[in-house]
């Protein structure tokens, strides 16, 4: 006789610990758009366009550290030494652990049948 397993459907509810952060993240993502600026110019017979796209992103820890991933010398319940859990120890709930600022710049020049494109990607990690 075959055994049938049933899984309970998971839904987000207002009492779910994931509900508030996921809704907040969705609202923030929908309300922020990347900034894009362009400039068309002409120098004699040379036509040009300079474009810039700027963006910023951040990652925030939404939950406290899982004690089963932290070694006993550091106050957790996992098996092992105390040297592998530094990443989870360093970031507290609600605190950002990575912030990135990026800019992509394009310079497009055209003269008769010739074209030249120069692109630069500049970024920095702030945490």
From TrEMBL:
Q: Where is this region: Disordered?
A: 65-90
InterPro entries recorded for this chain? DUF1302 (IPR010727)
Q: What is this protein called?
A: Uncharacterized protein
Q: Which organism is it from?
A: Nitrincola nitratireducens
